[in-house]
Structures are given as structure tokens and as C-alpha cells.
Amino acid sequence: MDPHRRVFRDGAVLIDGGVISQVGRTGDVKPQRRAEFEIDAKGKVVLPGLIDTHVHLAQALIRGSADDTALIDWLQKFVWPLQGNFDAEDGKVSAQLCMVEMIKSGTTTFLESLLHSRYGFDGIAESVGRAGMRGFLAKTVMGLPGYGSEKSIMHPGMIEDGETCLREVESHFKRWNGKSDDRIRVWYGARSLGGCTPQLYTQMAEGAKRLATGVTMHLSEVQEDVRYTKKEFGKMPAEFMDQVGLTGPNVVFAHGVWLTETEWKILARKGANVAHCPSSNMKLSSGIAKVPEMMQTGVNVGIGCDGGPSNNSYDMIREMKTASLLQKVRTMDPLALSAETVLEMATLNGAKALGLQDQIGSLQAGKKADLIVVSMQKPHLTPAFNSVSHLVYAAEGSDVETTIIDGKIIMENRVVKTLDEEKIIHDANEHATKLLQRAEIDITPKWPMEK
Ligand SMILES: [Zn+2]
Fold first, then answer.
1. In degrees rounded to 5, what are phi and psi of residue 279?
2. What is the pLDDT, as a whole number, of residue 444?
3. pLDDT tens-place string over residues 346-387
């Protein structure tokens, strides 16, 4: 993954500090001094770290808690009551669990889209710093406790006030943005349509401009989004977002399932990005985003795993395959979304969505050393003639052996060095059990449970 998409059969990457200094044929890559460490990647593939453009850190703890239901019921009956009972310790454990999973499946950068204050922003930001990941953290901004035309359906524990949210984004920004060697960024996390007044959206657009930061939001995930803006404002969702000033290159819209051609043109012209979340859209029966058409119109589209109750995995390698297959079956055209395009979406397009196209997303001298090493010496990856095809169609997250972020080895031979995986799994089980009790939600198999 470089500007010319060159594939080296016998290649090497030289890292100096946090930056890639040389990429090329092994014989041509010459360190100026003796290397501090060397990784033998024979029989393996080295590629840029994957970029997840739509993640909910706080939903790892509620994985599998809301299956076989559609979005608004899913939110109202399961996700909001559970998240409305979170405390800062739950938030931290969930974020750490999510990050261990991401690191172990090759994700190096992520955009977390909605952090409620009760999840404990400081604990989560501090965990991102410690984990060594590149994390974009969007603090929730909301003013109305609803979704679309459904009023007052939000769990009391999830309700926040608009002015307070805006103030908190600013204070988190001052405290955390650019910290941990610039690996942490603070964004605005706008609630979905029906959760904010038009004025609140405009305030976020102005705030993001002033702070030179980004805004992310779920948009046109379900048909209700379209019904709502048409009824309230006589506009399509993206037309409405354009009117409130939220369609610039610093904006990432998650889903975009029901966006129309007119809306793609607005996003393409203004530079707003889309995070495509195929597994979530399939599982919640939201619909199928017209990704190839959107991209042909000029919209930059990345990939997102979404969350623990909607996917229910944070494995970007698995998500790449789903993204490709979903478009093939929708269009009945096997060329609709090729392995090559999907890999670009998970790397370069993700980088562009986050405004980091000059820093990450490809293996190039001068870019940050965020890269992963994937083993190809596995039965399910043999024979290995076309590594791009294997990465998208045959590999799984657990084939990632080594994860390097900012030049630091975060995982080596599947052992995460920055976080205590065993303790996190233990703590997550404990916190999840208590959380279910507090929220009075029962997740047992539908089949008879033998004691
Ligand atoms: Zn989401």
C-alpha cells in the first residue's frame, strides 16, 4: 500500500523513531546505523495498520446484549438502558477490552463516535495513551432525548444537556487533544437526527471550526432519518446537515445507508466522509449503503466495525470481507467492490476521513510508522499468490502477528505489550455481569439452559 500500490515479494520497511524512513526491496533498504530491533517477516505480509472510522468503545462491554432486533428498539430496549447504567470504571474497562481486540486484529487508528460523560472521558483517554493506539475520541453532544420523530425515548441515564456537552468538548479538547505524542484527538460526537436542535448542530460546526477539529455523527442509518428531516425541514438528511454547516472535510458520517445521489453530490462537493458499517447494517436490518456509487460520485468512504451489540466484533479484516461481499450480492456484479478497493477503504480512505492522509494509511517514507505484520503461513491462507485477495477474502483478525503504532511494537507474536489482556478479560466479565444486574436486563440463550 503505497502511492503506486507496489507489491514487494522480498521487501523491507525501515522505521526511525516513530516514522517510516525507507520502504523497498530488502537489498535496497539500508539503515544508517545498526537497527535496535529487527522483525523477520518472511512468509508474512507487511501493510499499513487498519483504520476503523466508526467504533463504540463503550459497547464492547455489552457485546451480544441485543441480538435480532432493529435499530430503534435495539437502542430503546437494550443499548440505552445498559449504557445509561455505565459508570466511569465500566467505560474504562470496556474501552480497554475494545482496544485489545482492535490491536489483536490489526487496527491501529480508530474514531470513537459517541462518548457519554458517564463513561468517564479522562479514564478512556488515559487508556488510549497507555494502549499506544491512535484514538479519535468524540464526546457526545445532544439536546433532545429522542431518535427521529420518536420523542423522549432515551433512558434517563443517557440524557445530556446541549450547553454542558459543548462546554465539555472544549474542556476535553484542551486537556487531551494532541496528547500522547499526538495520538489522541478530541472531536464532537453529534447525536443522530432528533437528538439535537438545528441550532446545536450549527454550534458544533462553529466550535469545530474554531478548534480546528472534527465532527462525527450517525446519518441516514435507517429510513426514519429520512422521514424525520423531510417532515421537520422538508429536506433530505444530508441537505439538512449541509444547511447547518456540517458537510466539510472534517465531518465523518457513519452509515449513510439511505443517502441519495443528490446527497452524495453534496458530500462529494463539500468533502464530508462516510464510514460504511456493513455488518451493523446487515445485523440491524438497516439496509445496504450504495458504496460503489457513492465513491464514484466522489465521496470518500472508509470502513467501520460499529459496536459490540451491532456487529458484534471489532475485527476490521472480517469487516473488509463483509463490505466486499455485500456489494457483490446487492448489485449482482462481482466487480462492484474489489479486494483492492476495500483494502484502500480500510487504510487510505480511513486516513483521509480523519484528516491524516499525509501521516498514515500507506507505507511510505515520511509517514508515521503504523503498520501490521500478518502471517500467511496458515492452512486457510495457502497457497498465497495474491496477498491482497487473501487479506480481504481469506484472512481473519487473528492472523495479525505484530502491530506497530508510532514506531512502537504494541503487539508482538500476538502478545499485547501495552495492556494486560488477561486482567482486562477478567474485569470485563465482572463489570458486564454487574451492569446487566443494574440495568435489569437478562441475556440468556433462548434455548433451555441446563444447570
Ligand atoms: Zn454506531
1. -65, -45
2. 84
3. 999 999 999 999 999 999 999 999 999 999 999 999 999 999
| Distance from the alpha carbon of residue 7 to the mean position of ligand 1, in angstroms | 34
CA of 52 to the centre of ligand 1 (A): 12
Q: How many CB atoms lie within 10 A of CB 400?
A: 27
Residue with cell 437502542: 75
- Cβ atoms of 19 and 369 closer than 8 Å: yes
Lookup result for grid cell 463503550: 58
Residues 318-342 have pLDDT tens digits of 999 999 999 999 999 999 999 999 9
Report CA(47)–ligand 1 centroid distance (Å).
27
Q: Which segments in the chain show pLDDT lower than 50?
A: none
Q: 158: Cβ–Cβ under 8 A, 6 or more apart, which residues?
A: 80, 83, 84, 116, 145
- For residue 56, report the distance from its CA to the centre of ligand 1, in Å: 6
Answer for the pair 230, 274: CB distance below 8 angstroms, yes or no.
no
Distance from Cα 348 to the centre of ligand 1, integer Å: 21
